[in-house]
Each structure stands twice: as C-alpha cells, then as structure tokens.
Amino acid sequence: MSLLVVGSVAFDALESPYGKVERTLGGAATYFALAASFFTPVSLVAVTGEDFTDEDARVFRGRHHRVDTDGLERAPGKTFFWSGRYTENLNERVTLATELNVFAEFKPRLPEKYRSSKYVFLANIAPDLQRDVLQQVKDKPKLAALDTMNYWIERTNSDLLQTLKHVDILMINDAETRQLSSEHNLLRAARHIFKMGPSTLVVKRGEYGAMMVDDRGVFCVPAFPLEEPHDPTGAGDSFAGGFMGYLASVGSKSDVSLRRAMVYGSVMGSFAVEKFGLDRLRILKRGEIHARARHFAKLTQFKL
Question: Half-sphere exposure of residue 98, counting CA atoms within 13 Å on the CB side?
C-alpha cells in the first residue's frame, strides 16, 4: 500500500572523522522516503527552494525507488540548510548552522490522490502542521505514526498533546521519551505516553538499537555492528522508513509484523550510516536488505 510522508527535504553540510561534504541532499522526509521505497510506493510532501534542481530530484527516481514527488512543492527562495560536525565516536554532534529558508513558511497541502493514504508518517515538523495533514486525509488511516523533537516538546507542548491523540505510533529517541513523559524509566515513560493517544512507542536509541513497547510487551533490536560507520545523519529517519515501509508492504500491524518492521528499520538505519548522506541508500539493492535482515536473525538467535 502507498505510504505518505510529510516532512523536510534539505541540503546538508557534514563533517565527521571520516571526511567532509559541503553540500549533499538530506532532510527527514528524504531519508524516510528512500528507505521506505524499497518496500512500498511512497508519496512525498515537502517544500524546496529554487536551488533544488532536477538532478537533485532524480534521487527519488532511482532503479529501486518508488517515490511520487507530485507533493514536492517548489517555492521562491532557498532550500532548508543544515550543517553539522560529529565527534570522534560519532555519538555527539555540533550544529554549525540551521537555515530554515522556505521551510519556515511550509504549509503542507496534500494532492488529491494522496488524501486516501492508509499509511501515514508525520516526520519532524510543527505539531499543528502534523495535525493539519491528518485532517486532510479523507478517512482515518490504517496506521499513522509521528516523529517529534525536544524543540516541539518544550515550545508547543499543548499542540503536540492534541496531535498525539490522533496517531497510533510515536517514534522518538530515549531523551525525548523521558522529556515528554517526565519519567526516567522507559517502560514507565511508555505507560505515560499511551495515555496521550499512541498505542505503540518506538524508542530510537542510536548505537544501542531500538525498543518497541505496546500492550503486548516489549521488543528490542540491537544496532547492526559496523566496523566503520561514516555518518549518522538520517539514521533515525531511515529506521522509520524501513519500519513503516515494511508495515505498509505487508498491510498488517500484527505483533509479528511489528517485530519484523523493527528489524527492517534497524537494517535500513545501518545502511544509511555506512557512507555520507544518501550515498549508500542510492546504490543499495533489495537483495542486500534481505541478506542483512537474515544476518540480524542469526545475531540475535539463541537457545535455552
């Protein structure tokens, strides 16, 4: 089934111990869409500036990518720009520049053909815009998931709480989970968040993997062990793309499907960090995805 994503398309400047790039395509919706498109067709809603070229847009039309860009708006001005530098262990980053540009005035408008989407992912944008997107979808989606960040939790908490009432899955990192719930323990935090609306919490934990909590229990996946990760940018968004892309591809939200989605999310996150920006996702093949998923099964399998 087609999967709708609404979020940011950006240009990034990145620096890590493994090198430096001055300008590469990024943004939460970009990483999500590319990762998810290996599993299912994706409809993309975002805004770019006049500096976003047809060559840049070609990334969405790769051999293995099925991304509909009719919802990708071009506006006068420059595309959202972010610049960051990662420390030696890649666990910490310093933001050097954030220029919202046309993204500052972004008001998502869904093309008519997107309004019947059954799977919806609301990437990290203002909560009132996320809620507006859900209102534009004609019928209640089969599955709606949301990402947010500390900025919205602090600055627009009431808006965020209103929006959370309308989603099934909340997908955030461990620090944001604790901040939103005012609970340090992640299991207690999950119970607190379930009262806000979502029935499933997925906690992204970087190099420690990810944890899913719902009324059926807890399921954890490790991060795939890599000798030389180059660039963590977009890892969480690629995880979300793999997770939601898999669920849309099987048309199910059963416990088995959600657990497999967690594995495919980790697989896509692991590929994203192997090279700078989108370079690894651009050349990735479906066979590699399934091979790594099988490797994951071997890594985590044991007998009592």
Answer: 6
Give percent of the chain above pLDDT 70: 100
Looking at this protein, which amino acid is placed at residue 196?
M
Q: How many CA atoms lie within 13 Å of 73's alpha carbon, on the beta-carbon side?
A: 19
- Taking each helix axis from N to C end, the angle separating 28-36 and 235-250, rounded to the nearest 10 degrees, works out to 40
Contact assessment for residue 91 and residue 112, using Cβ atoms and an 8 Å cutoff: no
Phi/psi for 77 (5° steps) reads 120, -165
CA distance 212 to 230: 26
Cα separation, 91 vs 232, whole angstroms? 8
Q: Are 262 and 210 in contact (CB under 8 A)?
A: yes
Tell me the pLDDT tens digit for each residue of 81-136: 999 999 887 878 889 999 999 999 999 999 999 999 999 999 999 999 999 999 99
**88: buried, middle or exposed (CB in 10 Å: 19+, 13-18, 0-12)?**
exposed
Mean pLDDT of the 172-196 span: 96
pLDDT computed for residue 65 by the predictor: 77
Measure CA 189 to chain center: 21
CB contact at 8 A, 220 and 211:
yes
User: Following DSSP, what letter does each residue of 137-189 receive, concatenated?
Assistant: SSS--SEEEE---HHHHHHSHHHHHHHHTT-SEEEEEHHHHHHHHT-SSHHHH
pTM above 0.90, yes or no: yes
CA proximity to 145, closest of 105, 108, 118, 115: 118
Mean pLDDT estimate for the chain:
95
The single residue listed with the structure tokens 């604790």 is 178
Q: Is pLDDT of 58 > 80?
A: yes
